[in-house]
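Lab channel / #folding
Pinned by the channel admin:
"Please post every new chain as: sequence first, then the structure tokens as a reply. Keep commentary short and put observations after the output so the thread stays searchable."

First post following the new format, from NK:
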Amino acid sequence: MKKILVFGGTRFFGKKLIDRLIEHGCDVTIATRGNTADDFGDRVKRVQLDRSVDDFRWDQLREQKWDVVYDNICYNHRDAEIAVNKLSGKTEKYIFTSTLSVYDFTEKALVEEDFSPYDYALPSKDAELNYAEGKRAAEAYFFQKSDLNVTAMRIPIVLGVDDYTKRLHWHIEKIAKGEEIGFPNIEAKMGFVSSDEAADALFWLKDQPAQGPINICSEGILSLKELIGQIEKETGKSVILAKNVTEKNHSPFGVPKSWYMSLDQAKAAGYKPKELQTWLFPLIKTLEWR
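Reply from TO:
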């Protein structure tokens, strides 16, 4: 029975990961602030702490050895440093949920080498970083400053019925209500991953050798124009494209250039991705009625 610690396991794909771990007989502990209720009951153990705060509550975790630690809520190098200091020598494997945002926009399929955390200059400890720079810095700290066996799972925008950010929902509602949407580049191509597939990938990675950075997403890409076309088909309404992109009408998917990843490394390691359209189009249909 694998002994698993999870940071970020009470909602979205983290919650789905917990379901899979329990189903397969793992001994699961959730580290949580206690702000989000869960329905796991006595099937999991809980440790209450804020993973971004270095205090005595980490002592409960240091007293144990873990087969795998999942970190879905590390957002910068300060978070990474706390985990490294507290869990060094305490886990066989550390799986960090990173992001497509570590990469710059481009017109090609991004490979892992397009951002090297091994060469990234770590910012000062008190530097205020945006989301992308924070994730870059977190990766860099793990790979440059720790002795942990780290896998950094880089994923694109995650979608699902349970998406608390409601980014896909936003587009469907705008089109259904006849409200305009602003796209910097509606021809830009993007990749996505479902919350189920993100959870499946995390579960799969626990039994793999440490991968370093690895791209995980669904197989296939769509232009934003194609995605909007599918929403139009399901709603029976036509999109109103804004002539001027503003903060109010800017699409949550609005990017200046295509932004998607190569799966070559993951597939070489044995990962079997889902086809994008097999889950995304049914999801649009489901959300249209919610």
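NK: The chain has two domains: 3-157+193-215, 160-191+220-258+275-288.
TO: also worth noting, The chain has a mean pLDDT of 95.
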